[in-house]
Amino acid sequence: MQDKKRNVFSSYMMRYELLHVIGNPYVHIFGVGLPVMLALLITRVAVSELPGEQWVPMVTTSIYLGMSALIPMAVLLMGYAVSYAQELSKGIPERLQLFGMKKSVLFCHRALVQGLFLLAAFAVFFTSGCLFSELQPPTLRGLAAYILCMLAFSMICLALAHGIACICRNFGKTYCVSMIVYFAFMILGGMMGIQYQDLPKWAQAVAKLLPVTYINKDFYKVWTGEAYHYMPMLQSFFFFGAVSGILLFLALRRPKKW
């Protein structure tokens, strides 16, 4: 009975994963500090160039919604991938299996803890926005759509991060690949000062496949409940979710060949 419980839920593993996440400096620097700092700085610069104060809530809200995508990207693509790669290089998952913990169960513990940390990071991010910037309140439908989209995007990032870590299996390679993916998302998603319409045609074709492009470009309409054609955004979620899901499936089912 004890072994059966261990394969379902373990408070010790939850505590271990939580301490592991809290002790990871990458998630605090890139997942909490950087999004807040960038959002505050960019909004200050953008607001100072506006012709009238009536545009301040719209511009501020658009920037904050776009920058919020940095949180799952940094916490999962950077923090989780690098941390798990270090565990793989030291053989920690294999040791935990000796105590009866299945890899799928371990992944569920990690996913739950990562979700709790993401919730706290989003709370800090939007609290700072409400305190220091003029954020426009969402409609009920817009808030629900935003939560569902960010939840789906976080799950995609988690699956992608786990797959990258299992392929690279060490800190250096995982850090390099994660940084490339992280900055590619930022550049193609329009977070580095280059708007989608200013990208080359081939880059626009790639950007259309990334959910972060629509989060940064169109989420103000979703947030405020304006009429919006969801199909292109949903297609990007399905496509990139399928790619990340395949990597996760291979990581969980065929680890010995990697």
Major sheet: none
Uncertain runs are 1-5
Helix content class: over 70%
Order of helices and strands: HHHHHHHHHHHH
Q: Can you count the helices?
A: 12
Mass-distribution shape: globular
Mean pLDDT: 84
β-strand amount: under 5%
Distance between the termini: 33 Å
Radius of gyration, CA atoms, in whole angstroms: 19 Å
**Structural class of the secondary structure composition?**
mainly alpha
List how many beta strands DSSP finds: 0
Write out key terms for the chains shown.
mainly alpha; disordered N terminus; 12 helices; 258 residues
Describe this structure in words.
- With 258 residues, the chain is mainly α.
- Helix content is 78%, strand content 0%.
- The chain has twelve helices and no strands.
- It has helices at residues 2-6, 11-22, 25-48, 56-67, 70-90, 92-98, 103-132, 140-168, 171-188, 201-207, 211-224, 231-253.
- α3 runs parallel beside α7 (103-132), α4 (56-67) packs antiparallel against α11 and α8 (140-168) packs parallel to α12 (231-253).
- The chain is globular and about 65 Å long.
Concise overview:
With 258 residues, this protein is mainly α. It contains twelve helices and no strands.
Topology:
Elements: H1 2-6, H2 11-22, H3 25-48, H4 56-67, H5 70-90, H6 92-98, H7 103-132, H8 140-168, H9 171-188, H10 201-207, H11 211-224, H12 231-253
